[in-house]
Each structure stands twice: as C-alpha cells, then as structure tokens.
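Possible regression after last week's pipeline update?

I re-ran a chain I had predicted before the update to compare outputs. Posting the input and the new output here so someone can diff against the archived version. Not blocking, just want to make sure nothing changed silently.
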Amino acid sequence: MSRAEWLERVERWFPELVDAKLRSLTYPEINRHRDRIESWLDDEVTVSTIHQRLVDDHGLGAGVTSVRRYVWFESADREPNPDQVTVLRPEVAPGYEAQIDYGYLGRWREPPCQEARCWRRRED
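New output (post-update):
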C-alpha cells in the first residue's frame, strides 16, 4: 500500500490525528478570542503581547507557544510586517571581512601523527 493510500485511510479513520486543531487541547479556548486576536494582529501587536493581554485581561490558561501555534494555523496567509522583522546584521560583501573564533576548539587528532590534541588559545 502506498503512502498516499495510508494517509487517505488515516484521515478517514482517525480525523482527530490528522487535523492539528482537533488534536489541540487549547485551540477551543484560544479560538474564543478569535476576533480580538485578529484585531490585535491588524494593529501589529506581537504574539507575546497578545498572549499576555489574553492571560491578564481575559483569563486565558494557554501558554504563549499555544497562542503562537494558533496564530500560525489561523494566519498562514498573512505576510510578516517588514518593519517587525529583526535583521541581525547588514550584508557584507564576500571577502570584505574575516571572522575568527579564538575560543576552545575541543579535542581533535593532529593529521600527521594522529595524536589527540586539545587546542586552546595561548596566553602570551
């Protein structure tokens, strides 16, 4: 039996295993605040802040990860706001800079004699 045939049978026999919404214990609790969450997302409120507001003001018992998962499921068609994307560093042209890590390299075997070495930065 092919993988596709198995998936079709599993969907028919055990729909609660296929649909993540049906498997989730917190989905119904979070979904009660659907309109509120959508309006906050439209106002570009972060998911962490949405979670905290729901907990503080509306008694939500779900964790922030569950709220993130809910937003991911329900808002898959939303494009991220480019102003809220964190860019860690600017692009650097190839060959413009070098990066060196002088930390602990760990254990390795020296190629010519295959002796075990432990490399550390010398303190001169």
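Follow-up from reviewer: compared with the archived run. The chain is about 45% helix and 5% strand. Marking as no regression found.
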